[in-house]
Amino acid sequence: MPKHRMPSLWSAALFVGAFATAAVFWSACGKEKAEVGAAVSKQAPPPQMTTQTPSNQIQPPPPGAGHGETGMSWKAPEGWKEETPSSGMRKAQFSVPGDGGAAELVVFYFGPGQGGDAMANATRWASQLTKPDGSPATDTMKTEHASFGGMPTLLTEAEGTYQNTMGGSGEKHPGYKLLGAIVEGPDANWFFKLTGPAETVEANRDAFQAFLSSLRPGS
Fold first, then answer.
1. Are the C-beta atoms of residues 179 and 153 closer than 8 Å to each other?
2. How far is CA 58 from the centre of its chain?
3. In this prediction, what percent of the chain has a pLDDT beyond 90?
4. How far apart (Å, rounded) are the C-alpha atoms in residues 195 and 103?
5. By the 8 A CB rule, do 108 and 193 touch?
6. Distance of CA 200 to the CA centre of its chain
7. Where are the domains of the chain?
8. Three-state secondary structure along the chain?
9. pLDDT, tens digit, for every residue of 160-188?
10. What is the dihedral of CA 174, 57, 155, 103, to 10 degrees?
11. 141-165: per-residue pLDDT in tens?
12. Cα(209)–Cα(217) distance, rounded to whole angstroms?
């Protein structure tokens, strides 16, 4: 009888050993797959293609926008010289004389749904000026809410080294100042931006206020 049990015991041991080895193997495989799956799931997803138009790619206003009932009228101060706008994005522009050198007033109108909100533009304008330490003047800019011609307006001002990063030459101009106004027009915001040597801009502060006071919806 013992001679017959021995093969059975060895067979059982071999069977158990083989089963355990297979279990360990499949367990290891399952763990490896789980770890690989976890690693894959932690990887950043592939870049997604988008057709969204970047905010800085402004489209031309629709035909008729910014004229008639959706237009804006104003009276330029004496001495300000109206010039032909240097780009299609400009609705109007003026050369503003002063002892510190000529400044420039630019009027922008992009049409309904374009151009961004008032505070975002005030902040962007201020970021075009840097303080002596090279940081943007956004934390020192001043803003004030007002109304001209019955239209809500955000006034802003900042000073420092000016660099026009929006289609300009990129040249740096130290000692510059900016006075700006974002006006809620009949169908969209209108943007009025006076920049130039600080002495000239400051000397024309009252003239800029008079210009804004002359604003009327419709043209």
1. no
2. 12
3. 65
4. 6
5. yes
6. 29
7. 1-49, 68-217
8. CHHHHHHHHHHHHHHHHHHHHHHHHHHHHHHHHHHHHHHHHHCCCCCCCCCCCCCCCCCCCCCCCCCHHHCEECCCCCCCEEECCCCCCEEEEEEECCCCCCEEEEEEECCCCCCCCHHHHHHHHHHCEECCCCCEHHHCCEEEEEEECCEEEEEEEEEEEEECCCCCCCCEEEEEEEEEEEEECCCCEEEEEEEEEHHHHHHCHHHHHHHHHCCEECC
9. 999 987 666 679 999 999 999 999 999 99
10. 40
11. 999 999 999 999 999 999 999 998 7
12. 17
Quote the CA–CA distance of 204 and 179 in Å, as a whole number: 10
* Domain 68-217, CATH: 3.40.1000.10
Residues facing residue 82 across a β-bridge: 94
Give the position of tokens 């027009």: 185
Q: What is the pTM of this model?
A: 0.73
What residue type is assigned to position 75 of the chain?
K
- Which letter, b or e, does each residue of 158-167 get, where b requires 16 or more Cβ atoms within 10 Å of its Cβ? bbbbbbeeee
